[in-house]
């Protein structure tokens, strides 16, 4: 298969490209500044596209002879106050380019865990005291991972905040972190990902499926090839995704299985798998 990966350099996109190449598929990485080569063996090429240039973007999708598309787009995290705007605009541009193009194959869009429903009928990001209450329930190892991820993204202040939150949680009954962890600016990535799901729901002109990673998604893990898949609905059929995690490497396995089999068209889904097999 010839597969376009939108956003190949991100933590999800890299694993998707690796998994596609390992299965013998051809990959075309598409972003503003995609890598020209890939360290893993296989057929990789890239096309530089500004997603806000809808005409050029749709032309690339029309003329690319793609069998499938994976959107691993995510807004940069350097400026939290701008994450929501950039994220919503980026997801909207992707949708418009797909629908304005002649491409009508499957597209898997990667969103965020905030869209998943509890069995009580409430989405995670609408739950009481989100995300303070939900960070409070995270194990120490996941807070360690999140701090490291923030440092990797150049968010040193937020990385130090997470380390401080972990310490305060162990030493105080009610650490004073509620304003930060309920501030919309801190939650922009989560809310823009939910907006992306809303953009696609009800669309029949494209074979989309929307993946919300589990709440404890971790990268730099191990590919075990094991995962459990859940299709989400307002009855909370995918609630295990709120309480569990997966490595990006195994989530990529689930994504490429869907690329190859196309069984989840017009579905919102998640997947969980083993974690804690390395330092986190």
From TrEMBL:
UniProt GO molecular function: oxidoreductase activity, acting on the CH-NH group of donors, NAD or NADP as acceptor
Classification via InterPro entries: Epimerase_deHydtase, NAD(P)-bd_dom_sf, Polyketide_Oxido-like
Domain NAD-dependent epimerase/dehydratase: 4-72
A Pfam family matched in the record: Epimerase
Signal sequence region: none
Assigned protein family: Belongs to the avfA family.
Protein name: NAD-dependent epimerase/dehydratase domain-containing protein
Lineage: Eukaryota, Fungi, Dikarya, Ascomycota, Pezizomycotina
